[in-house]
Write a structure and sequence with these properties.
It is built from eleven helices and twelve strands. It is α/β, with parallel strands linked by helices. The chain folds into two domains: 212 residues, Isopropylmalate Dehydrogenase (3-Layer(aba) Sandwich); 141 residues, Isopropylmalate Dehydrogenase (3-Layer(aba) Sandwich). The longest helix is centred in the first third of the chain and has 19 residues. The structure holds adenosine-5'-triphosphate.
């Protein structure tokens, strides 16, 4: 029996609603798979927790999390708590402290989901977003508050090591998954220090992968190409800010935030990796039971991939695809009226069907 210890942080808003469905899906696997034992511990770290305790997680929160093999995260964000508190006191410390320097986001056509941009061809690429440095740094400051001379300074931190390791992760993925092309997002014509370093070390790292082709586009052109010809991308590598924007655009291209999973990965497995939907807590629909749980359920599938259980991950993705292809159960974001629970249940049922042994009919040949 292989045991997997998972920390679950549902967070705020729809994070709580969609997480319930992901856990139901995982528990089907636990019940059906003889060698899959999931030990789940739930952590209520959220905006409510902050309002009660004055912090997003306990002082030893990271120490506690470090003992787990993976973290399944819902979403965070609440009007009662400033965004910089929710983000910088929970998600960012986890990503940075645990060296989750790869943010992996698949962008894939799904059966039954029409993309206005696909032109009949499948869209199937992945984004490797640098997740530990770059534009999202807490280096900087403000001076002369509320005066006419008020100023701010926000530093971008790009390191050779940081650029190399995200590029390497993208290349390794490409090699393993038979992809031939890496697309780099840059803006070195205008951001002449950090982005030039980015270009140089992306290019240098690619020299180690002679079978991979590198194309490099300025981010403004690249967003246009995402819209005009999304089918042509295979593996996209981008800095923290550019990768963040490209991923939301990517999810919009293939059906919206309700369908888009992501993984924050520490490839060396020195620390736990964290899996979460691309979407946030969606306060506008929270509490209404109408959120699409697919992004969260698919994030759980990415977690299983990372834990070395590609077999189980594939089963979940297959169940999602079957529900979407059938088209009977759809949440509002993809044109239906099903509740979050109903969508979760439909995926659970499809997953269970994969364990039903089909009866083989008896055929007697030659007898009329
Ligand atoms: P953040 O800044 O953390 O990304 P946000 O509130 O700006 O959060 P989201 O929470 O991602 O953005 O939501 C953006 C829009 O997408 C909202 O209108 C929301 O209703 C919709 N949305 C997000 N996730 C889902 C989902 N799982 N199902 C249905 N609609 C969703």
């Amino acid at each position: 029996m292989t045991e997997y210890n998972i920390a679950v942080i549902p967070g705020d808003g729809i994070g709580i609603e969609v997480m319930k469905e992901a856990l139901k899906v995982l528990s089907v696997l636990e019940a059906k798979e003889p060698d899959f034992d999931l030990r789940v511990e739930n952590f209520p770290w959220s905006s409510d927790y902050y309002l009660e305790h004055g912090r997003m997680m306990p002082e030893d929160g990271l120490e506690v999390l470090q003992k787990f093999q993976a973290i399944l995260f819902g979403a965070i964000g609440d009007a009662r708590v400033p965004d910089d508190v929710t983000v910088w006191e929970l998600i960012m410390p986890i990503r940075k402290q645990f060296q989750q320097y790869v943010n992996f986001r698949p962008v894939k056509s799904l059966p039954g989901i029409e993309s206005p941009l696909s032109k009949g061809e499948d869209i199937d690429f992945v984004i490797f977003r640098e997740n530990s440095e770059g534009e999202y740094s807490n280096s900087g400051g403000r001076m002369f508050d509320s005066q006419l001379t008020e100023l701010s300074l926000q530093n971008t931190i790009m390191t050779r090591a940081g650029i190399e390791r995200i590029t390497k992760a993208a290349c390794e993925y490409a090699v393993k998954n038979d992809r031939k092309k890496i697309t780099s997002a840059t803006k070195s014509n205008a951001i002449i220090f950090s982005m030039k370093l980015w270009d140089e070390h992306v290019k240098r790292t690619l020299l180690e992968y002679p079978d991979l082709q590198l194309e490099s586009y300025y981010i403004d052109a690249l967003v246009a190409y995402f819209v005009q010809r999304p089918q042509t991308f295979e593996v996209v590598v981008a800095s923290n800010l550019f990768g963040d924007i490209l991923s939301d655009l990517g999810s919009g291209i293939v059906g919206g935030l309700g369908l888009s999973p992501s993984a924050n990965i520490n490839p060396e497995k020195d620390f736990p990796s964290m899996f979460e939907p691309v979407h946030g807590s969606a306060p506008d629909i929270a509490g209404k039971s109408i959120a699409n749980p697919i992004a969260q359920i698919w994030s759980a599938a990415l977690m299983l991939d990372h834990l070395g259980r590609e077999d189980l991950s594939k089963k979940i993705v297959k169940a999602i695809e079957e529900v979407l292809l059938e088209g009977k159960v759809r949440t509002a974001d993809i044109g239906g009226s099903a509740t979050t629970e109903l969508m979760g249940l439909a995926i659970v049922e499809k997953l269970k069907e994969q364990y039903v042994t089909k009866k083989v009919g008896t055929e007697i040949h030659g007898v009329k």
